Amino acid sequence: MRIRIVFLLKNRGGFVPFHHQYLLAQLIKGLLLKGGKKEYVDFQDYNFSGLKGQTKISRNGLHFYSSRVTLVLASGKKEFLDYFLSVLFTEKQIEVGNLHLTPEMAELEAKPDFEEEMKYICISPMLIIPPSLDYRESKKFINPMDETVSDLLYDSTMARMEASNQFPAEKFKDYFKFQVVPDVNYIRKINESQKKFARIYPAFDQDVKYEVRGYTFPFTLYAHPDVQEFLFIHGIGHFTFKGFGMLDLANHDPSKRTTKYHHKNIEERKSTPAS
């Protein structure tokens, strides 16, 4: 399931680096450690977006000018999401980069009807090549139109689905169909405008810094509905628990796909007078 966490922004104009997934990963990890439950210390069954709001780009990164900022968090385990919210909503204020944020509410995204053909956009960068200390390898550029893109993403997806223990072994024979078809018009327009859909990003794991190439381009995925649902929840590619590879449906109004997410700590926060 996927939830949207809404924060009040206390300092409009505050900023984060253009790519701030590593800051969010540190925040989430810190809250999980603070919560104290051992089963979630090394938990990796989650995926998250970048922060969303009204932004302007400067030399320092993304400046936020909206009164609220949103983070999408997804996991195959509802228990984890409830636990994370229970810890998050004990915080009066958190800081991400230069932003001062107060948790306000959470919304539940409606589950889409998954079909064999789905159109997606990337709401966080997608890692096609696994992180490596060999920066030449992990930063290597692959043309999205190259057939190896589908092959690499298929291999990583099947490995993650198998490791999740959510799918019987005999089902994998049904998952052979897998093709990623980038939006050719989008890539052409980006190239013509000399903008980028592939950048180098920092990522950290076990205090080790990696430099990785992330891609953000819309694409159509042809795959079994089970595979579509898995990727929509767990993200696509590598380092998904570090906030890479989160997808959203293309050409959909996200505001029409949410309902209020009820959680004890959120309700208690709202009923407590501000000090």
TrEMBL record:
Coiled coil: none annotated. CDD domains: Cas6_I-like. Residues 264-275 have a biased composition (Basic and acidic residues). InterPro entries: Cas_Cas6_C, CRISPR-assoc_prot_Cas6, CRISPR-assoc_prot_Cas6_N_sf. Keywords: Antiviral defense, RNA-binding. Signal peptide: none annotated. Residues 256-275 are annotated as: Disordered. Residues 111-249 form the CRISPR associated protein Cas6 C-terminal domain. Belongs to the CRISPR-associated protein Cas6/Cse3/CasE family. This is CRISPR-associated protein Cas6. It comes from Mangrovivirga halotolerans. The lineage of its organism: Bacteria, Pseudomonadati, Bacteroidota, Cytophagia, Cytophagales.
